[in-house]
Amino acid sequence: MTRIAAVHGALAPHRYSQHAITDMVARTCLPPGADRRALDRLHRGARVTTRHTALPLDRYGGLTDFGEVNDAFIATAVPLGAEAVAGALDAAGLSPRDIDLLMFTSVTGIAAPSVDARLVGRLGLRPDVRRVPVFGLGCVAGAAGIGRLHDYLLGRPDDVAVLLSVELCSLTFQRDDPSMANLVASALFGDGAAAVVACGARRPAATGASAARPGPVVVDTRSRLYPDTERVMGWDITGSGFRIVLDAGVPDLVRKNLGAEVDGFLADHGLTRADITAWVCHPGGPKVLEAVEEVLELPDGALDFTWRSLAAVGNLSSSSVLHVLRDTLAERPPPAGSAGLLLAMGPGFCSELVLLRW
Description:
The chain has helices spanning 18-29, 37-45, 57-60, 66-92, 115-123, 141-155, 180-188, 250-267, 286-296, 304-313, 320-331; strands at 2-11, 14-17, 50-53, 101-106, 130-135, 160-168, 191-199, 217-225, 233-238, 241-246, 276-281, 339-346, 350-357.
């Protein structure tokens, strides 16, 4: 089985209160003299207190086109990604040359050569490292990425694989779009990165900080696409960049599908929800999290780390669930031998489940 040796999170360099971000959105998105009370209610209701951004807030109003925005993505993603990978390797007691596979995921910018390629020389990875850049999975990619590392390491149990997520959601903000979807996104999303180091079953145990507190093993994963939901969540690609598609019905999709999905997956392993000692859930937003708690009938406090992450940094898209996993490992590791479930949802519309055992 795949062992998660370390998880390290990193945040974009500029940190602001939710109120300061609300003011920036009002200045750059709403027409002059417009009533901003609805915007204020949306931002208060997001239950976010602070967020990190790739650029200073006063830069966002001056971004003129997709090319300029994407240049800013690359300029920030490379050093932020390097920070996340270096931190995870250090925690695992491994060196960059130990990496056999580097998977990179983002849905907030594009690059060719890809960000992972730009990190090989910067970090000192081997020139024969296998690289898998992934675009389009959105918020689900943190969970799906762990699943795909697991798939790879089942076939190469002596290897070390790293997942890197970098999401600079602030760069997708559309200045000329007062739609509800854009305003909701402006209330929720933040900028950050995370890296996961995973080792195959025959790889010697990690020797870093994680050795004293071993991470969980991945037992199994499940991917599910739901039919006729392509326009629920995603991007419309425009001349000004990524214009968000976000349907208000996402919480209802969670209520309709997630319970049976989780129960079926657990039953395949002789488990029920009562056997899960750690729920590592992507912080999609208050209404989504309330739907998850409701449909899974979770006990009080089960998603504390998820709610805390949402408040502290917002929704970091694919990086968020990895930050929640990091916090779980560091602050409340479940008892040895117990089961945990990592889950996220994203464009497709889809879900990804990862069964863990400590």
